[in-house]
Every structure is written in C-alpha cells, then in structure tokens.
Amino acid sequence: MADHLDSPGLKSPNMDARVDITDVFAFAAQEEEDEFSRTALVLNVNPLTLASAFDPDAIYEVLVDTNADATPDITFKTQFSAVGSNGRQRATVVRAVGADANSRDFSGRVIIKNAPVSFGREERIAEGEDFKFFAGVRSDPFFFDLLGFLAGFKFTGSDFFVDKNVFGTVLEVPNSALGTNPNIGVWSRILIPAKDLETPGTGGLVQIDRMGRPAINTVFNHGADKVTFNTIEPTGDRTTVTTTGKTFLANFEDVLASFGYDGGSAASIAQILLPDILTFNFNNNAGFLNGRKLTDDVIDIELNLVTKGAVTTDGVGPHTDLLDEFPYLGRPHGVVKEDEQD
Amino acid sequence: MAAGVFIPGGVLTSGRVFQASKNKLKFRAVGGLPQGAFPSYASYVIEGTIDLKTHSGVATKNVFAGPPEAMSTIALPGLSRTIRITEVEDSGSVLRVRGVVDDRSQLQNGENPYVDITVDSGRETASSSFMNSEVSLKLE
C-alpha cells in the first residue's frame, strides 16, 4: 500500500491494475563504493499482479525536476506494444527534455527500443547507449504488515507483501542524464487515453495515477480526494481544494494534528510531504528521505513521523530476494517458466 | 413489535436483516479498515445465512480493497474466511452467533478458529474481530 490500489477509493485507478502505480524508487546504482555515477529509477505497477501485461495504450513516466519548481525538466517515458499472438510485449523508452518533459505524448529521444518484457522468471535486459532497461514481472519489493495496519496498528511482524508480485520497470541511467544539479526531485505518473477512463472522456492522454513518496495518497487522502490527488500535478499539491473544502495541505495538517502535533509542526511536516516528490541527491546514497532504496524501511520512518513517535515500527524488514545487480528487483514468486528467446 | 427485533425462536425482523425463508435469516455487514484516525484503506465484509430453528448456518468474512463508500471487488488474498455457524443466541434485537473456521489453512499463525459475530438489528450494526481487534460494521 505504498501506492497500491489507491484510487478511486483505493481501487486500482480506473479499475485497471496495469496503470496502478505501486512504488517508485530512486537510488545510486553503485558499482564501487563511493562511486556515484549512475542512478536506478524503478517504477512498479500492477499490485498483486491482477493484470497480465502492461497497458499498450498508456505511457509510463518517471519525471525529474532539476530546479526545485515541482515541474519536470527531464522525463523518461516508456510505451509498450500490444501483446502479440506469441504472448510477447516490447517496450520503447524515450528521454524528453524541456517542454517535451511535461507534454502528454510520447515525444523525446529514443534511448531504448523494442526491449522485451520479461514474463518469465529470468530477467531480460536491454541496453542502449549508456542506459540499461528492464520491464517485467518481479517480486514486489514493498514490505509492510498490512494486516496489522488494518487491525488498527496492532502489528505482528507479518509481511503481507513477502510473496506478492508486481510488474516492474527499471531504468539505469548515467547521472549526466539527470542534469547537472545533483539535487533532483523524482516522481512517476501514468497517462492513458481519455476514452479509456471509467467515464470515457474526449481528447488526448490524461493522468490516471502518480506517486512520489510512499504511502502519501493511500494514507492521508479520503475517497474521492484520492482520485483528484492522482490526477493533479505536484505544483497543485498544496493549493488544490478537496471535498472537505480545505486544501490537501490543510487536510495533511489535520491528520498530523490528530496525532498530537501542534499547528506549527503539523504545517512544517505537511510542507515536507507536499508536493509529493521524492527528493534525491544523486551524489549521496543515504536512502530515504534522500531518494529511496529497495531496502529502505519507509513505513517505519513514516509511521514514526506521522504518529509523532507513538508507532515506531511495523516489525517487518526488507525482502531478501533482491538482486545485487541490475535489475535489482527480485525474481517473481510462483513463476517457473522462462521466456522464449528471440 | 418494534422494528429490528428478532422474535425468539422464530422469525425476525428489521429492514437490514432479511428473512430468506420461514426460519432463515440473511445479513450483510460492512466496515472500514483501519478504524480510527486514518482513512479506511479496505472494507471488511461479513455475510451470513442463519437457520434460527437449527441454530446453524454459514458466514463468510472477506476484506476488499477500498473503503466502504468505494469498495472494489478485489479481495485481499489470505483474508477470506468461511465460518460454520455452531451456536445462535437471539435476544430481542441482538443475535449472537458463534462459529468455527473448519479450513484451518485459511487462518494466520495464532489466529483463533472460533469466531463470534454480534448482529444488532435495532442499531443496524454488527461486530466481530479482525486479527484479534474488535471491528464495528454497519448492516446493509
């Protein structure tokens, strides 16, 4: 539930798990200790692998803000082919800069072309220029005692996600592809055709889900506000008015105040949480809140923060099936078949 | 007879508990999880059919993604239970039901296979445990 099943009303956005973001990670892809030359950007979707493929009509994006204005300056966009009669699907990735970075289309320079999607146990990796790319079914790296949370914070150390799968995309980039300022902001969004909305619309692509930090929309926002939050851009996070008549920022302050924070502290923390962007210095591998590594216990950090220390841990830790090397995400549970080679 | 009263040893009734046949009642109750300060992430759904004559029946518990006002059909895996009802006590508008989960593979480590469900037709509520925490639900 980092962002799993978060809209509408925690259903997969638009009732379609293919376009439901579960997690976003950004971390230093170190080959040597103290060497910070590459970054891994991970975007996971499809909670509980409810769907069997990526959406060929969608664009899956990882956006990078290089000047702290909450708008993207560099965006990595991935588009998938339809699943062929042979069961195969392929991905193309572009890097968009400037105005193209925030345009709702597949504009940009191709950096990965026709990469195979891995539906089998073994990872099929594509490389182009100085980029590496993976897409396919993987073990869900998120760890959390969901049942303890649902039971009202009565944690027992049982990790609901330990045997679950997701669909992952992993893009490893040279840091030079992230701009010259090492202090960046990272988030993800998924665009789908307006005609594919639950209530079909007209026009081009619309934003159906987005995520920066984990457990923001899932934890802080109620019902229809979750849908709204998924469709706005980070620049609107503090000012957009919700169904309560207050802004998202004010609602966040209210939740924090309910855990005992005074007004000033609640406001300060809410302003850290919004806009919902994962801040990351790519010359530093400290982990969350500096980017997010697959092993970072983000829930413990957030529980502690949000509840003002009343709840410090859910008692579960990182998964042990992660890979030491690209694509880092663990191999999928219960998948024994291998993809046929081309 | 006030609305929402079970007639001891016989039929019932309330707008929220349905008489399926002469001695059979059906109910469905829904509650948000977690309960408390945070918005509900999921919905706890308990449904049952009870034979008041034989004091037996079947109930199910499921947890669906989404809060009660926007519940999905996505059942969270590992949280479904089928309960064989073994005892029924009716007193006024309150029905106290006890049952057991025969299929122990459905249970989490340390989870009690015996289940208590209280259906209060007068208040249009139900209650039962979820992971050893008492949860309040609304009859639908």
Features of the shown structure:
heterodimer; A: 342 residues; alpha+beta; seven-stranded antiparallel beta sheet; five-stranded antiparallel beta sheet; 6 helices; 14% helix; B: 140 residues; mainly beta; eight-stranded antiparallel barrel; two-stranded antiparallel sheet; globular; disordered N terminus
Report on the architecture of this protein.
The complex is a heterodimer of chains A (342) and B (140). By secondary structure, chain A is of the alpha+beta class. Chain A is 14% helix and 26% strand. Chain A contains six helices and twelve strands. In chain A, the strands form two sheets. In chain A, strands 3, 4, 5, 6, 10, 11 and 12 form a seven-stranded antiparallel sheet that branches. In chain A, strands 1-2-9-8-7 form a five-stranded antiparallel sheet, with no helix packed on it. The radius of gyration of chain A is 19 Å and the shape is globular. The model of chain A has no long low-confidence stretch (mean pLDDT 93). Chain B has one domain (22-139). Chain B has strands at 5-6, 12-13, 18-21, 24-33, 42-51, 56-65, 81-91, 94-100, 114-120, 125-130, 133-139. In chain B, the strands form two sheets. An eight-stranded antiparallel beta barrel of chain B has the order 4-5-6-7-8-9-10-11. In chain B, strands 1-2 form a two-stranded antiparallel sheet. Chain B is globular and about 40 Å long. The A-B interface holds A 1, 5, 8-12, 15, 48, 50, 146-154, 156, 158, 160, 164, 218-224, 255, 258-259 and B 33-39, 41-42, 44, 63, 65-67, 69-72, 74, 76-79, 108-110, 130-133.
Write the layout of secondary structure elements.
The complex is a heterodimer of chains A (342) and B (140).
Chain A: E1 21-28, E2 38-45, E3 59-65, E4 74-80, E5 90-97, E6 109-116, E7 126-128, E8 131-139, H1 146-150, E9 165-174, E10 183-193, E11 205-211, H2 217-220, H3 223-231, H4 248-258, H5 263-273, E12 278-281, H6 298-306
Antiparallel strand pairs in A: 1-2, 2-9, 3-4, 3-10, 4-5, 5-6, 7-8, 8-9, 10-11, 10-12
Chain B: E1 5-6, E2 12-13, E3 18-21, E4 24-33, E5 42-51, E6 56-65, E7 81-91, E8 94-100, E9 114-120, E10 125-130, E11 133-139
Antiparallel strand pairs in B: 1-2, 3-4, 4-5, 4-11, 5-6, 6-7, 7-8, 8-9, 9-10, 10-11
